[in-house]
Amino acid sequence: MVLKSPTNGDFSFLDEVRVFIDADGLNETEIATALNISAAVDDELELDTDDVNLMEFLKKDKFSLRVYTVTDEAIVQDHEIEVNSTFFVDAKILGN
Question: How many domains does the chain have?
């Protein structure tokens, strides 16, 4: 996660972040976390990924990601956050 604005902001207002994946016919599953976030955190936050097989989610026409946060301080202005997700896919080509 990267804080895009405010330009002088940081993620110190967060205590924890949890990311969940969901798709039709599948149970929502937690896939990444950042817990007990330090007050000394900067404007980038890398989450720890869970060892979850995402194959069934990625085979669906669409899936959604939900972000759950716990804050430990109030913020008084809007924060624009960019979330980058990278999935590793080990695929076999049919017919070979």
Answer: 1
